[in-house]
Amino acid sequence: MITVSAPGKLMLSGEWSILEKNVRCIVLAVQQRVYATIQPREKMSVYLRDFELKSACHYADGNFSFDIEDEKLIFSKYAIESALRYLKSRNIPIKPFHLETWGEISKVENVETGQEMKVGFGSSAAAVVAIIGAVIQYHTNSSFTHQKKEEIFKLSIISHYLGQGKLGSGFDVAASTFGGALIYRKFDPKWLQEEITTENLDRLVDKEWPLLQYIPIELPADLVMMVGFTGTSASTKKLVQEMKVYKQKDPDGYFTIISRIADVTEQLIKAIKSKNQISILKLLDQNRILLEELSFACSCHLEIEAHQVMSHTASKYGAVAKFSGAGGGDCSVGVCFNDSDAAIIVKEWVQNGIMPIDIEFSREGIRIEKE
For residues 357 and 255, which has the higher predicted lDDT (pLDDT)? Predict the structure, then answer.
């Protein structure tokens, strides 16, 4: 039996702008992980523990399918199919297996109701990375060298991109594969779409992808992160569709805000490299203000009241908090450079109905777990 895991993510800067061409973001891997266990079986089968979904599955002529239909299986389908097609293109014989997945999803308690709520951190991307890593490890028994991680990363990009309906940037896949803090730039989606239909996966994985970039960046040692859950979640796919409507309706307004977010992120990269605390906080606050402007302009409600409560509380103590990722709910990430200030901020969040989440930075990306 082989068990592979991949970490979740938090976006520090570059929300929404990362979807545009030649724009970078800063993403962090977090310790909450998704696991995939694989072992020999006479016939292929899959069990997604978090969704209590079990199914027999079949692979023939490059196509992978389940016996049941459920949209919760979509990412698993593309992940397994991509891994098997890749192995076949490398002339590696396919062996039947049983695959199980589950996630280390944080549970937070609602202060008012006492109800426990689950919070994921890019779990679909982490699941895709873990599944592909497990299937490849099962068939090749090779260690996860940097080259092997790059292969898994590109296969995961393809799988997650197709699973999302050809949306998304892949920053979460990068965090789940390589871990740590990364400067990330999206691949060229038009190029990738053409290559997927014309190239064998082995050749596509071996190629250098236009625009794609993922560079490690070292965070200041005294940087303290706080994460608060709003108590609600939004559909990223739905928000992306709504943002497309705004982009078509007011392209000038859209690109003005997006280019300013991109510029702030580039300045933040320089501030982090120089360990300039004042600039880091100032630029993260500028990012927050721009996301607030975008939320108002697109009428998508990206920044909700709970995000505003966290931002206001953090600012009282010289810190910064902003929503992380697409917005519309989920989490805000706060940053300061003092543990005692962070403790006060989190305490006040709780008093205002915000649910804090114990988050640790993960330097490790995909890994093979010991038995």
Answer: 255
